[in-house]
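Q: How would the structure tokens look for this protein?
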Amino acid sequence: MMAARIEVEKLKEDEFGVRVIEGRSESTHRVTLAQDDYRRLSRGKDRAPRTHKAIVRVSVGARAERIHFAGI
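A: Here is the predicted structure in token form.
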């Protein structure tokens, strides 16, 4: 299984355009990341703060893997 390539573009303060490319398949999405969610997700016990784009990329990637694994 080839990992999906995920491109993230900031559209507004809390809105991002996301393009998921896997092989010859491609999908586009609009994702909102509220400030409260950003603050909650940007820090973990042992990691430095993450950018908004990085959080969106990781979240979409994790979701894409679950969908692919489930065969949806």
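DSSP finds two helices and three strands in the chain.

Helices lie at 35-41, 52-70.

Upvote if useful.
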